[in-house]
């Protein structure tokens, strides 16, 4: 269960900034999301670990063996993440589109990503990194705080 301090931070972040900045800040509070694009004209969604860089770009780490990075590199992709399993009374979902490019992570990036999985679908995990500059950011919230419920039920 998140601490009251974390909840207050999330609540303040959600209510304040424009979607672009608010969405990137919220992404920084979770580790995983879903990358969406198409490969051979068929859409697909893949899990990815992410970090938010100081310049507000998002760096993804995926398994090279999936081959998804080849379809994404140089293409517009969508990425989304949420806090739906956090236990917070205010839940959020962030989605954005942007151009993906394969990059080499810095030492600081690698430190922030932390440990890599050992395996992905029973094969040795081999990382590949993609940078996305968020464009067309949307943030959606679901608020289950008690005062909101009582206000709407009167």
Topology:
Elements: H1 4-16, H2 19-27, E1 32-39, E2 42-52, E3 58-63, H3 68-72, E4 76-82, E5 90-102, H4 107-113, E6 119-120, E7 123-124, E8 127-132, E9 135-143, H5 146-153
Helix pairs in contact: 1-2
Highlighted features:
5 helices, six-stranded antiparallel barrel, Pnp Oxidase, Chain A, disordered N terminus, two-stranded antiparallel sheet, alpha+beta, globular
**Helix/strand order, N-terminal first:** HHEEEHEEHEEEEH
* CATH class annotation: Mainly Beta
Distance between the termini: 30 Å
Outline type: globular
CATH superfamily: Electron Transport, Fmn-binding Protein, Chain A
CATH level-two architecture: Roll
Integer count of domains:
1
Number of strands: 9
Mean pLDDT comes to 86
Strand content: 35-45%
How would you classify the helix and strand content by structural class? alpha+beta
Largest sheet: 6 strands, antiparallel, barrel
Residue runs with pLDDT of under 50 for 5 or more positions: 1-16
Number of helices: 5
Report Rg: 17 Å
By CATH, the topology is: Pnp Oxidase, Chain A
Describe the strand arrangement of the main beta sheet, using strand numbers: 1-2-3-8-5-4
Helix percent reads: 25-40%
């Amino acid at each position: 269960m998140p601490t009251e301090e974390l909840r207050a931070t999330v609540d303040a972040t959600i209510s304040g900034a424009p979607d672009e900045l608010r969405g990137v800040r919220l992404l920084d509070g979770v580790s995983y999301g879903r990358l969406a694009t198409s490969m051979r004209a068929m859409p697909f969604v893949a899990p990815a670990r992410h970090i938010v860089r100081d310049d507000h770009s998002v760096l993804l780490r995926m398994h090279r063996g999936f081959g998804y990075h080849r379809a994404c590199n140089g293409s517009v992709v969508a990425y989304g993440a949420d806090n739906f399993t956090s236990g917070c009374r205010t839940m959020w979902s962030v989605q954005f589109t942007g151009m993906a490019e394969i990059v080499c992570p810095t030492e600081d990036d690698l430190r922030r990503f932390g440990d890599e999985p050992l395996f992905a679908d029973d094969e040795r995990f081999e990382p590949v990194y993609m940078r996305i500059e968020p464009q067309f950011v949307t943030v959606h919230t679901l608020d289950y705080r008690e005062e909101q419920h009582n206000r709407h039920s009167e």
